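ok trying again, last paste got cut off:
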Amino acid sequence: MAHKDNRRCTRCGNPLSRYNTDERCAACARVTGNEFPAAPTLPDHVWQNPTVAAALADWDFGTAFRLIRQIASLRQEDMSAITGLSQSFLSTLESGARRLVNIDKIVPVLERLGVPPASGATSRPGFRCPVSAAGFRRAVHAVIHP
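nice, full thing came through this time. structure:
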């Protein structure tokens, strides 16, 4: 049975390849010097946009991320630094080719984005989650409301 490597980059927290013997991922290792640029932050007005709120309420993260990027004038690389998701995954997510459905990824992403409780991401009347909606909402609620 293969051993799962759970090492993470010391700068950005992304998982490291099992072939990477460094403490940093390749992207972080390319940055020269000891000072790493801080991940961009999202302005508060992003969460006041009704289209963003609707996408989050529907748990349509691809649309939400695209709208957030456009409103905040961010690149996918910037969004990747904030969320911890790869730029290529964000691209396929935004295009609709893939969906973010794994609770182990959704909860940390919402936390890193700083999604406020009133955004609608934690609940939506009539929404049916494919995996234990009540448990999912409790987990998301616990992260957003520590």
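cool. The chain has a mean pLDDT of 77. The CA atoms of residues 12 and 117 lie 25 Å apart.
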